[in-house]
Amino acid sequence: MTTTGPTSPVAVVTGGCGFIGSHMVDLLLSRGFRVRVIDSLVGGREANLAHHAGNPDLSVEIRDIRSVEPDSSLVAGARYLFHFAGIGDIVPSIEKPTEYMDTNVMGTVRMLEAARTAGVAKFVYAASSTCYGLAGVPTREDHPIGPKYPYGLSKYQGEQAVFHWNAVYGLPANSIRIFNAYGIRSRTSGAYGAVFGVFLRQKLAGTPFTVVGDGTQARDFVYASDVARAFLCAAETERTGEAYNVGGGNPQPVNRLVELLGGETVYIPKRPGEPDCTWADISKIRDQTGWQPEISFEEGVARVLANIDYWAEAPLWTPDSIQTATASWFKYLGTPGGTAP
């Protein structure tokens, strides 16, 4: 077991009680870091870190990132800052764009200022592949940017702030554009969204999987612990000012997920503005840092199924409730005026 002490390096993880953030905490503690988590618990759960209860190397501060001051003691002395905190649902971003811009952009600026004041050695930002919009595949980092909804826009503008602080203030920083992350401890509450949470709750209830379109659309699924390793690689590299795609590099049809989960299906209308395929070109991060995914899709799904009870209290979605929840999506993205670049 890795031992730590007063001289062990400190890492800050915003959103550390959340899905990927909690996997980041796991990795950092296993590598001998003392970890400070900042989380508002809007999307995260303290239970996601319950397996670290009593660990003196972990502290959790329940705090909105927008309230963190530049000279905050929460960041002082930290070597790395991993910024996952933010609002992640797509559909509500169409309905509440101001909230998304405030949290995902200005919240990021707050953390950048705290990192700059503290003199952190590397700031690593959790960006989103939604910045590319309807992208050509496989998608490289130099692909044109074209977010289709406020969530994607807010995450991209947060990334622009990161690179601005890198260029103007010399803050060492990199960004990870996450594709379709999945795994244990993914979010169980909130709006209709990620396919795994929807399907796992439906499987527990014995109801059909609500497959969008015909299920042939493919997603570049990448397991959460692999994502966490990519963030650490992006922190430890001497390179700075870089954006990296992180995905499995092996897109899987939704029908393949249904096959692995096992169950009946019902098909619902395809949503406008969604790609038929997401596929990360991961050659840049592989070549520059040595990172590559280790968890196969089949192994990852098996891990999730072994922990399926985690989703027992998640919302149970039906075709009717999905139609109601996504009405804004069709209203704003289903017309010529709603397909903004």
TrEMBL record:
Coiled-coil segments: none
Pathway stated in the Swiss-Prot or TrEMBL entry: Bacterial outer membrane biogenesis; LPS O-antigen biosynthesis
Species of provenance: Azospirillum aestuarii
Highest rank taxon of the organism: Bacteria
Signal peptide range in chain numbering: none
Protein name stated in the entry: GDP-mannose 4,6-dehydratase
Domain NAD-dependent epimerase/dehydratase: residue ranges: 12-247
Family of the protein in this entry: Belongs to the NAD(P)-dependent epimerase/dehydratase family.
